[in-house]
Design brief:
The complex is a heterodimer of chains A (326) and B (311). With 326 residues, chain A is mainly alpha-helical. Chain A folds into two domains: 2-67; 81-325, MetI-like (MetI-like fold). In chain A, 77% of the residues lie in helices and 0% in strands. Chain A contains 13 helices and no strands. Chain B has 311 residues and is mainly alpha-helical. Chain B contains 13 helices and no strands. In chain B, helix 3 packs across helix 9 (227-243), helix 4 (138-148) crosses helix 6 (173-196) and helix 9 (227-243) crosses helix 13. The longest helix of chain B has 42 residues, at 91-132. Chain B is globular. Classes of the chains: A mainly alpha (326), B mainly alpha (311). The interface between A and B is large, with 138 and 141 residues.
């Protein structure tokens, strides 16, 4: 109870303090001559937000870059040793390879399945469309930890002879095979793919909602024109609908791509990176928290940032183009 | 977006679909083929929905089964004997609640509520300035905010852990919610600014002519008009913070102040207590975000589509 009261106090205090700050700064600026008031007021309005972003994102990001050239306790410079050590170890190269596999599989699969559901559900009556979309959308509300719990139960393995309580092994043994500890099967990265299924399952709802809105936004007359010209349904889909929703496809792809690059909780809870399923964010956490190695953890983040850089460039360019069109 | 949490709520990326108001659209989602679904389409969707719901159904049913039943027979066996009431129980929930989940449940609120409410107003002020005021570096600053939307939070964690250690914040709720306020700020400013820029400029101009200050215009006009966008961000942020594991694990860790995601992750690791307890704990951890999500889905979807598919 005391905790909740403290939380409420934090809200009241936080909001109140921020309000008071805005109010006082605003009053102070109003005391100035009009010319200065006009000049300074925008900075009063954006000030606290800029300070928050500067303190919690920009300053730490620069610090992280610097720390990546220092040792584990950040007490001495080691040059590029963190990078060469990481890239020189086959274990870390495996981590990178796994992350690349995730990047190659998950965003594309999420877009494809989401688009499929959007187009199919579009043909249903309104009530069944809403119901089927809600079912597929729901996993989005569940935390990564919850998703991992749900799917660990599916992949659960019991020794041979005991009744299987995990769905996958129940089906597998019913087909006459011996039970398999699925999460430990690293042949051809099979267990990594089992983990990817979880993220796809969780993200298809997001992809479907955006793509469905885009598909519904395709003007009817373009479809009718194609139909009059004798196009069949497949041609209409690939040559008329897909080009018109391509921008949304890219948007969804990039959003899922970013969440894949920093995927942590699902892998952490399912395997903690064991059995050759490690990914970059789990490795980062273990370097920082388990090993207390600030240097290596920072170097991993810098590599992650380099990988994200093209997306940032795309994002900014795209935003500029959009603003220009406004 | 994020995503989620796992799903870290997704980061909306600015979309490219231009408003097409001049061109007639289909009304109310009626497709050219609406209602024309043949049995293949229906079957495909039924199969998909079945595949999507079954994993969740498994833990929901298991959480109501006795320890003995849950750990010695598959949850699907209840389908053949649904009326055998001896296999059902509510005690898993009370046991999970008393063994840490109840405590964590309250802790999650203590972290999530301040992290959701505090940034809204700070971001609203900033979004107002970005939309309605002229100042040097305005566009550069906003581009930086747009770029930060896709930057993973991990970039900040190493130095923050050290700063928090130095000032003694590690292990306090404030450590987590302050971090989330910072990490959520770019998205908040972005969503609100995009929404405010669609508000009629004439309203603001006339308020100015009437002699209203920016402060007054903001409070009396812009904030009330922006409620849908404020709600969209609040839902994103709530789900994101409640479902987050990484930041809670780093700055609060397991212990007296752990939040629900950390508790459930711990239960998964220590599985000796059985699936009935783990599933009940997982459901307690999910109930709030699922309720928020289901009841406020309208705002959530609007936020998603406004962030990425305009028009």
């Amino acid at each position: 109870m005391i905790r909740l009261i403290n939380a409420l106090l934090a809200i009241v205090g936080g909001v109140g303090a921020a309000l008071l700050l805005f109010w006082i700064l605003n009053k102070l600026v109003e005391l100035l001559p009009t010319k200065w008031e006009e000049r300074l007021k925008p900075w009063v309005f954006i000030g606290p937000a800029v300070v928050a972003i500067g303190f919690f994102l920009i300053y730490p990001a620069i610090r992280t870059f610097i720390l990546s050239f220092a040792n584990a306790q950040s007490t001495a410079w080691v040059g590029t040793e963190n990078y060469t050590d990481l890239l020189g170890s086959s274990e870390f190269r495996n981590t990178l390879y796994n992350t690349l596999l995730w990047i190659a599989v998950v965003p594309a699969a999420t877009v494809a399945i989401g688009l499929g559901v959007a187009v199919l559900a579009d043909r249903l009556g309104p009530r069944s469309e809403k119901l089927s979309k809600s079912i597929i959308f729901l996993p989005m509300a569940i935390s990564g930890v919850g998703q991992a719990t749900i799917w660990r139960f599916i992949y659960e393995a019991r020794p041979e002879g005991e009744p299987q309580i995990g769905l996958q092994n129940a089906v597998w043994t019913a087909l006459g095979f011996d039970p398999v500890a699925w999460l430990q099967v690293s042949t051809l990265h099979f267990n990594s793919f089992l983990l990817m299924i979880i993220l796809i399952w969780a993200q298809v709802g997001f992809s479907m909602v955006l793509l469905s809105a885009a598909v519904k936004g395709v003007p009817v007359d373009t479809l009718e024109a194609a139909r009059i010209d004798g196009a069949n349904e497949r041609q209409i889909f690939f040559r008329v609908i897909v080009p018109q929703i391509w921008a949304t496809v890219i948007t969804v792809f990039i959003t899922v791509l970013i969440s894949v690059m920093k995927i942590f909780d699902v892998v952490y809870v399912m395997t903690n990176g064991n059995f050759n399923t490690d990914v970059i964010a789990v490795r980062f956490f273990n370097e920082l928290f388990r090993n207390g190695n600030n240097g290596r953890a920072s170097a991993i983040v810098v590599m992650l940032m380099i990988a994200v850089l093209p997306v940032i460039v795309y994002q900014v360019r795209h935003f500029r183009a959009e603003e220009a069109a406004r | 977006m994020t995503t989620t949490g796992t799903t870290p709520p997704p980061t909306p990326v600015p979309g490219e679909v231009k408003p097409r108001r001049a061109i007639p659209r289909r009304e109310g989602g009626a497709a050219p083929g609406a209602g024309q679904a043949n049995w293949v389409v229906r079957l495909a969707l039924v199969v998909l929905c079945f595949l999507w719901i079954v994993p969740t159904l498994g833990i929901v049913i298991t959480a109501f089964r006795s320890a003995d039943a849950a750990n010695t027979s598959g949850w699907w066996t209840v389908i053949t004997s649904p009326l055998d009431f001896t296999q059902y129980t509510l005690s898993n929930y009370s046991q999970a609640w008393n063994e840490g989940m109840g405590n964590a449940f309250i802790n999650s609120f203590a972290v999530t509520l301040p992290a959701t409410v505090i940034p809204i107003m700070i971001a609203a002020f900033a979004a107002y300035a970005f939309t309605f005021m002229q100042f040097p570096f305005r566009d550069v600053l906003f581009v930086i905010i747009v770029a930060l939307l896709v930057v993973p939070n991990q970039v900040a964690l190493v130095p923050l852990l050290r700063i928090y250690g130095d000032v003694g914040l590690t292990g306090q709720f404030a450590a987590v919610y302050l971090a989330h306020i910072g990490f959520g700020m770019p998205l908040a400013v972005y969503i609100l600014r995009n929404y405010m820029s669609t508000l009629p400029k004439a309203v603001i101009e006339s308020a100015k002519i009437d002699g209203a200050s920016h402060f007054k215009t903001f409070w009396r006009l812009i904030v009330p008009m922006s409620v849908p966008a404020l709600a969209s961000f609040a839902i994103f942020q709530f789900l994101w913070v409640w479902n987050d594991l990484l930041i809670a694990l780093l700055f609060l860790g397991p212990g007296d102040k752990e939040v629900v995601t950390v508790t459930v992750a711990g239960l998964v690791g220590a599985q000796n207590q059985g699936w009935q307890l783990l599933t009940a704990g997982a459901i307690i951890s999910m109930i709030v975000p699922v309720l928020v999500f289901v009841s406020l889905q309208r705002f959530f979807v609007r936020g998603l589509t406004a962030g990425s598919v305009k028009g």
